[in-house]
Design a protein that fits this description.
294 residues; alpha+beta; Beta Polymerase, domain 2; five-stranded mixed beta sheet; 14 helices; 5 strands
Length: 294
Amino acid sequence: MDAIEALVQAELRRPVEPAAATLAEAARAAVGGAVVVLYYGSCLRDGLSTEAVADLYILVADYRRSSRTRLGGLANRALPPNVVYLEAATASGRIRAKAAIVALDQFEAACGKDHFHSYFWARFAQPAALIWTADDATRRRTGRAIADAIRTFASETSARPLAAHDGASAAFWIGGFQKTYASELRAEGPGRAETLYRADQARYDAIYALLAAENLRPAGSPGRWRLRQALGKVLSVLRLAKAIFTFEGGLDYILWKIERHTGVRLEARPWQRRWPLLAAPGLAFKAWRKGGFR
């Protein structure tokens, strides 16, 4: 195990709050064939609350058990990840999560140097915690994949060899995150990249020092990033379109968002959860009548 993988494996074992473990149990109950539940994003940094939605990744052995329909599994294999919405009751109140589903072998490939687009390796160059795994062998595979994601990020976002000098780490990470954000349809502003770096600066600086010592081959030419950004916009639109048909629990998530922002509470009936596209116009009208849209 090299130094970067050792750092990642230790990071994956970081303790998490009990509510996160409750979410992991909900994720395993909702998605068949889970072998890993990863936790990352703003709630990992700032803590869970009843006003936030946590970000989880559920790695599965294969897609046959993870989706309720064969078409959903095929869609996930073709353009991962599919997403499910989860809720769980805790002593502090009801907490929520969006959980992305991807097969472990596909996750490993998407974090590696041969995967052109940054969707996966940009996310997992950032901190993550492993809150449940089926066994230690799977934990090790997950850690190796995340170490690969960090190296892929370094190679693909750098046009020159990494240099060890004051300010180099900040410029590397902030510039890299800005490039990867520009390769998707994202709502965050340009300052988001610096916020990410500053939130875990010691961690990022430690990884940068290890990367600089490895003399990785830079591959981040302007032409590759122009192509990656164009491809990323197309993939973002396709993922949004796919989510209309595969985002399990998405209707409940939207209704919760309306209640959170406006105080208007609507309850979806079972048939509406089963056929969200048919239910959406009527629910939207009810929300408008109650003041949910202004």
